[in-house]
Each structure stands twice: as C-alpha cells, then as structure tokens.
Amino acid sequence: MGKKANPPKQASNESRAVLRMTRISPQKLNLLAQQIRGLPVEKAMAELEFSRKRISEQVLKCLKSAVANADNNHGLDIDSLVVAEAHVGKNLVMKRFHARARGRGARVMKPFSQLTIVLRDTSQAAETAEAA
Which end of the chain offers a freer environment for a tag, N or C, measured as fewer CB atoms within 10 Å? Predict the structure, then answer.
C-alpha cells in the first residue's frame, strides 16, 4: 500500500532539462531563450555556439543535456528534435550594499534565474498524423 507514482511531467515524445540557480537576470536570459525557441536542435546549438552573450555557454550545456535526456531516457530521434519550449523563471535575489558618499549605502540586487528547455520529437507527430 505505497503511494501512487507521480505521472510524467512531459509527453512521451518530449524531453526536458532545467538550468537552475543561474547568476543572471531573467530578462537577459530570456533574450537567449527567445533566439532558440522553435528552432531545430542543430540550428539552436549553432546559434548558441556563436552567440556573444556570456551566459550562452551554460544555455548550450543545458540544451545538450536535454538532447542527452531525449536519447537516453526516452529513446527519441535526435535529428528530428525541435526546441518546443524555452521558458525563464525567477529564482532568488541576493541583496548586497554598495558604499556611497556621506555614510550611506545603496542596495545592489543580484538576481538568479532558471531556464527550462523542452524538446519535442517531430517525427512521431508526423507519423501519428498520417496514421489518423
């Protein structure tokens, strides 16, 4: 009489990876997420590889992790993967103080964010549409 298993968080033709506690503001991270959203995995990797943004290396690492999850955990075809979702969320904010003139202090906010990448296999979707 154990408790029931949790249902999977994504469909059988999807895989995901989450990049947590990234030391960048969500607004800046969302700029990169917008660039790769909806692209095939090959193009998204190329886009991140040649991006001049500092955080692009970590986003590329997260994308590669999602591809590895798709291959190893779900047995999906890597060549037909598309970045279905790339959404950014807020995480904690470190609060620091910066010394100012006349003994005052200014508050410095150092935000963290998190990125979730969901990859979808488009070949299975095409097969099920043909079968129906």
Answer: N
> 14-131: which CATH architecture?
Alpha-Beta Complex (3.90)
- Average of pLDDT values for 86-90? 97
**Who's near 101: CB < 8 A, 6+ residues apart?**
none
**Can you read off the two tokens belonging to residue 8?**
């999977």
**CA atoms of 37 and 30, how far apart (whole Å):** 10
Q: Which residue has the tokens 């029931």?
A: 4
Q: What is the pLDDT of residues 16-28, one digit of tens each?
A: 999 999 999 999 9
Angle, helices 26-36/56-72, rounded to nearest 10 degrees? 50
Helix (H, G, I), strand (E, B) or coil at 38: coil
Would you kindly state where each structural domain of the chain is located, as residue ranges? Answer: 14-131
Which residue reads 């033709």 in tokens? Answer: 13
3-state SS class at 93: strand
4 compared with 126, residue with greater pLDDT: 4
> What is the spatial distance between Cα 44 and Cα 56, in angstroms, rounded to a whole number?
11
Q: Return the pLDDT at 3.
A: 86
